[in-house]
UniProtKB/TrEMBL annotation:
Keywords: Lyase
Similarity-based family: Belongs to the DapA family.
Positions bound to pyruvate: V204
Active site per the UniProt annotation: Y134, K162
Superkingdom in the source lineage: Bacteria
The name this protein goes by in its record: Dihydrodipicolinate synthase
Molecular function per GO: 4-hydroxy-tetrahydrodipicolinate synthase activity
CDD domains in the cross-refs: DHDPS-like
Organism this protein belongs to: Flagellimonas eckloniae
Classification via InterPro entries: Aldolase_TIM (IPR013785), DapA-like (IPR002220)
Length: 299
């Protein structure tokens, strides 16, 4: 598990009867793998994690592991309310064949710094899987500070951070303090290119679910030093990337997946498909993006 490159936080596909739609899910995963993504992340916010039961998570992990056939890692997100359930989720992830874990702080309860540290350390000690801490104080109201990472990195299997602080300078602070001991992945689509240029190792991406080739192209071009070519694609992409920084990011991105033929609009209640003026606005952005979709350079 290298914790680098483009890692789609994939959407979970549902049928109109609210069952897992493994047929469409497989189509999307194949598109991601064919585009050259570097890992698959299941059950994140975009994957409607809070609505999935344990059996569904088991099915998704095992099905994805079979689909990718060892070509790329499969990571499962852990977002639980209790330490006990998080440890159980980590045990299950290992049992079902996941390669790594992404972890949020405790859900619903705003834990103190000491509680947050104890939570992460307890799970890390319970599993041999490598862990990426998901640091998103904007949405989840708990920040994992550099001082806290100093303590967490005593756990050898805590390897990376998905940085969603919205603070680009945080990447430099992490590099200055920890060197390459802590891998950094951008967690905000609209800051991806900036983060990669500042030294981030990768991009946990959202709109990649609909546009995998364009997302991978940006990463690979930056890695090859072809910044102007990457910037041209990124500027085209920005109106679409802004669909990721919305409370309705799931509905937005699923609409984009419909446009590119690798998804459906089905969401799980209490979410509903977009309606009215907001649906028209999002569709207009997607339609314009499709009309102006760039020709990608050779990589």
């Amino acid at each position: 598990m290298k914790w680098s490159g483009v890692m789609p936080a994939v959407t979970t596909k549902f049928t109109q009867k609210d069952d897992l739609d493994l047929e469409m899910f497989s189509i999307n995963i194949k598109a991601q793998v064919d585009a050259g993504v570097h890992a698959i992340i299941l059950g994140g916010t975009l994957g409607e994690a809070s609505t999935l039961d344990d059996d569904e998570k088991k099915i998704l992990i095992e099905h994805t592991v079979n689909l990718v056939e060892g070509r790329i890692p499969v990571v499962i997100n852990i977002a639980e309310q209790t330490t006990k359930n998080s440890i159980k989720s980590a045990e299950n992830a290992e049992k079902y064949g996941a390669t790594g874990i992404m972890m949020l702080p405790p859900m619903r309860y705003k834990s103190t710094d000491n509680e947050t540290l104890a939570y992460f350390k307890a799970v890390a000690k319970s599993t041999s899987l490598p862990i990426m801490i998901y640091n998103n104080p904007v949405d989840y109201k708990i920040e994992v500070t550099l001082e806290m990472f100093e303590e967490l990195l005593k756990c050898e299997n805590i390897k990376a951070v998905k940085d969603s602080t919205r603070d680009i300078t945080n990447i430099t602070r992490i590099r200055n303090r920890f060197g390459n001991r802590l891998k950094v992945l951008c967690g905000v689509d609209t800051l991806a290119m900036e983060s990669l240029l500042m030294g981030a190792d990768g991009w946990v991406a959202g709109l990649v679910c609909a546009f995998p080739k364009e997302t991978v192209a940006i990463f690979e071009l930056i890695r090859s030093g072809r910044v102007e070519e990457a910037l041209e694609i990124y500027r085209w992409f920005m109106p679409l990337l802004e669909l990721d920084i919305s409370p309705q990011l799931v509905q937005n991105i699923k609409l984009a997946e419909v446009a590119t033929g690798i998804g459906t609009e089905n969401v799980r209640l209490p979410r509903l498909p977009l309606q009215g003026k907001e649906r028209d606005r999002v569709l207009s952005i997607i339609e314009n993006g499709m009309k102006t979709r760039p020709k990608l350079p050779m990589l």
